[in-house]
């Protein structure tokens, strides 16, 4: 062991107290400033949400009349119908695929290079720019599969876009189901699939639904993927006749009204945008509240 | 008779089918990533018969409907770089500060309000951001700063910053929360103030996650379409110097969105737009693979 | 409520003492009316079965319980006669005077040098020569210098467990505290490393007042001058170490040191 005897070892120097106090005072001051900066940053970050809601309500609320919502000629009814159809079909396609993929990841797959690859693919799929999804939809669904610019092609494209979201949310929900429940079921002689169907899925359902709500919100607001796969802007045929007809969609209509059609009354533009914001943020809020509730329940 | 020998599986053909489907579904994500790549390649590569890749990347004019058409991507690439760099200059510090605040400083009540609000910020559709930028923020900024036009690069950067912030916040916050509590305790026990602990121990320990967060935020910004299409003025010119931020410019994403709708299929113009899409896809791929790699390096805990 | 029993007051100057200290975690009463005084330049060991409150007690001296949500501390902690358990107390300054070594060695993910220099840098020491001097002194004091002097720039995470713990001690010493709190500092270490730390403590007590929590009674009897025995949040007995281990006054202490429970 090293000798400690050497005299001055760690003895406080004469002016230590004073310089310490000065250093501490400074550190405290820096801390105050830094924390003030952090508070400010947080406020600046969330300010836009509140501003957006306030401004849009102020400018668009007047337009929100029954006629505006329900009229074909004077309102946004066809666009609302189009968006509902698109989003509905998207969910019908994405939900089973996403949930099945999540079941594979959570219940069947063993950790290894294959799962690594799948996870990397999911991350990448989530990161592909939405307009690139549009290109892919155009190349595959619109031209190669001859869906044309249609409800079906748009929904397939949007389904692909929300797929990573559905998989991730569903997998998280499935993983929250306690292991004991699975083991209990298997111990009673159930097969793996029976256990998934009767025990795991029902318990994970609220979480999966929350994920689907988020996916619906995402699909409802996307514009770029449907630009050249589904959307059009014409009042001649306001409602799609089949899966292979093009559709009006609310986000696309907002884009067109804001950029290409000069003589739309301003309150119509603001009204349409307000409707979209309320629908999308409303869906997200519902999902957030559901999730918070589920977490609170799980804790007990 | 009860016997454990005969495999249950053989007696349940339906179950086998469903399980096979589940396995196939599991790999769908991989299939789709590959499919996107294949289709982008298929429709992008034919442009190389018209113009070489080098000439395309370094070409200074994008004018696909001129005669002869010009497919120079430089203005679009630089446009994307400008807008994205501007967005990160604003969004990166803001997002990191917000994440540090939520993870380390905020009282629980403030945290409960902030986190959902940040999520909502991410949820606002990009067309709505574009709408507000175009109709409200742009004209207002133009008036305040005496700009001739209410659509310019910096406006795109500003709006994109707020669209990238939620990604930066949520990924950074995860990284900060993963820092072992013992680091904080040790630092405080050594007489560090909370801020010294945050700035010298917690943030450095979370740095790979924070880098990943920045990359993902950057990916979000560079791939964003509708907003930049609506607010940056759509002029495919090469931006010059810092003044370039105050002038209209055009990004790669906006070019696809603006032109693909009116382009005849399988023309050089169509293939050129797919080439832009391919480049965007590859950038996104690189960003995600690198950030995924960075995130795997969890803060240095003992083996 | 029981009356606090008369507690020994060590001879010589008292550096720190507690008077009627209570800690609640939510509705759990973790520490009951603990009063004790600690002599300068001595080692005091706190022993008792797990969950008896000894670590909770230790964390009162540098107010680490502040970090635990729902923890309430009442009573006095007198550091050189001044109560530090008040809202006005500057906890940062307190923690600079009262150092702590934790149960598991926890090097920051940075170089050995930066780990040791962390505390001095916090206090505004900038000159590299001065930092080098402090780092060397602290590492020597922690009996680690010879083992690491050639790899100061390497990451501290690569050190062995025992080395990491001595580095954490050096890191605490670099802040120049007056008191060193050690919370089961050897529980994660092998016997050789434990031996090193114990040797080190005996040397350090020439300069510091050391309070150590340990579940290892042999360790307590080997290194400490005074020993306090905790049970269910109470300080049952506090006396010279020989007294505690050779003829404790309280039958519960006797039961514990004879291994009858805990």
List the helices and strands and how they pair.
The complex is a heterotrimer of chains A (300), B (303) and C (262).
Chain A: H1 16-60, H2 66-70, H3 77-108, H4 113-127, H5 130-144, H6 151-176, H7 179-187, H8 192-221, H9 224-227, H10 250-259, H11 266-299
Helix pairs in contact in A: 1-11, 3-6, 3-8, 3-10, 4-6, 5-6, 6-8, 7-8, 8-11, 10-11
Chain B: H1 13-26, H2 28-44, H3 53-58, E1 62-63, E2 70-71, H4 74-105, H5 108-123, H6 126-145, H7 153-177, H8 181-189, H9 194-205, H10 207-223, H11 226-231, H12 252-259, H13 268-296
Antiparallel strand pairs in B: 1-2
Chain C: E1 14-25, E2 28-39, E3 43-47, H1 54-61, E4 71-79, E5 82-83, H2 91-97, E6 98-101, H3 112-122, H4 128-141, H5 145-148, H6 161-173, E7 179-183, H7 191-204, E8 209-213, H8 217-223, E9 226-231, E10 234-240, H9 241-246, H10 251-257
Parallel strand pairs in C: 3-8, 3-9, 6-7, 7-8
Antiparallel strand pairs in C: 1-2, 1-4, 4-5, 9-10
Helix pairs in contact in C: 3-4, 3-6, 4-6, 6-7
Commentary on this structure:
The complex is a heterotrimer of chains A (300), B (303) and C (262). Chain A is an all-alpha fold. Chain A is 75% helix and 0% strand. Chain A folds into 2 domains: 18-61; 69-296, Orthogonal Bundle (MetI-like fold). Chain A contains 11 helices and no strands. Chain A is globular, with a radius of gyration of 27 Å. In chain A, 47% of the residues are buried. With 303 residues, chain B is mostly helical. Chain B has 2 domains: 8-46; 50-297, Orthogonal Bundle (MetI-like fold). A two-stranded antiparallel ribbon of chain B has the order 1-2. The model of chain C has no long low-confidence stretch (mean pLDDT 89). The longest helix of chain C is centred in the middle third of the chain and has 14 residues, at 128-141. Helices cover 35% and strands 26% of the residues of chain C. Chain C has a 6-stranded mixed beta sheet, with helices on both faces. A 4-stranded antiparallel beta sheet of chain C has the order 2-1-4-5, with helices on one face. Chains in contact: A-B, A-C, B-C.
